């Protein structure tokens, strides 16, 4: 009997749990904190997307340099400034045979080039809000291990910009964040 009185007095109406007002106040505080922090998380996520895309571009550049040496043929990275995309082409081994036989299809500047098979041959897009800037719309890689010396700029919508530089030496690709005159390296040789 003593046990029953102890338990019944412990669970009376005043100590059953939280009131509705307390729950609403806690929920309102949580909503305000989420609303205040979500723009920060979105900006961080967008910045990470751009950096990831730049690292992918750097990897494709290094891949093209390696494949040009191994396969002893030229590779070309195409940059589309109007659509903010890039993709990799390799020299078509059958192009010389077509020229010798007189079978010219008139394909223009990209005649004699074919898409690279596999994951490096797909079309890559820059994240929304980022765009290519520069004067060069392609980057060539040669069997000697050299490549064109270029600077590719990627500008974000919030005025941050990045530079990808190759200087022609085999394997040298640098990615840096530029703010005014300052450069902060993200990836080096």
Could you list some keywords that capture this structure?
189 residues, alpha+beta, minor pseudopilin epsh fold, five-stranded antiparallel β-sheet
Task: Describe this entry's structure for a reader.
This protein has 189 residues and is of the alpha+beta class. The chain has a single domain (19-187), classed as minor pseudopilin epsh domain (minor pseudopilin epsh fold, 3-Layer(bab) Sandwich). The protein is built from 3 helices and 10 strands; from the N terminus they run ααββαββββββββ. It has helices spanning 2-10, 20-71, 95-101; strands at residues 75-80, 85-91, 113-115, 124-125, 130-133, 138-141, 150-156, 161-166, 173-179, 182-187. Strands 1, 2, 3, 4 and 6 form a 5-stranded antiparallel β-sheet that branches. A hairpin with a 6-residue loop joins strand 8 and strand 9 (173-179). It is elongated. Mean pLDDT is 80; it is low at 97-107.
Structural class: alpha+beta
Give the CATH architecture: 3-Layer(bab) Sandwich
**Beta-strand content estimate:** 25-35%
Helix and strand succession?
HHEEHEEEEEEEE
Number of domains: 1
Q: Indicate the radius of gyration in whole angstroms.
A: 29 Å
Number of strands: 10
The H-level CATH homologous superfamily, spelled out, is minor pseudopilin epsh domain
Count of alpha and pi helical runs? 3
CATH topology: minor pseudopilin epsh fold
Average of the residue pLDDT scores: 80
Shape: elongated
What is the CATH level 1 assignment? Alpha Beta
**Biggest pleated-sheet summary:** 5 strands, antiparallel
């Amino acid at each position: 009997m003593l046990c029953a009185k102890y338990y019944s007095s412990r669970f009376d109406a005043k100590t059953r749990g939280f009131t509705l007002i307390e729950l609403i106040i806690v929920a309102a505080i949580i909503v305000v904190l989420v609303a205040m922090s979500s723009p920060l998380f979105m900006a961080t996520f967008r910045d990470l997307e751009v950096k990831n895309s730049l690292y992918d571009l750097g990897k494709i550049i290094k891949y093209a340099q390696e494949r040009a040496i191994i396969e002893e043929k030229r590779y070309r990275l195409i940059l589309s400034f109007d659509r903010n995309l890039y993709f990799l082409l390799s020299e078509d081994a059958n192009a010389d045979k077509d020229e010798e036989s007189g079978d010219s299809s008139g394909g223009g500047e990209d005649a004699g080039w074919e898409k690279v098979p596999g994951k490096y041959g797909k079309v890559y897009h820059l994240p929304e809000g980022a765009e290519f800037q520069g004067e060069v719309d392609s980057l060539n890689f040669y069997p000697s291990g050299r490549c064109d010396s270029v600077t590719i700029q990627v500008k974000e919508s919030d005025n941050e910009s990045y530079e990808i530089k190759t200087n022609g030496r085999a394997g040298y690709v640098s990615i840096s964040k530029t703010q005014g005159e300052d450069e902060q390296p993200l990836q080096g040789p």
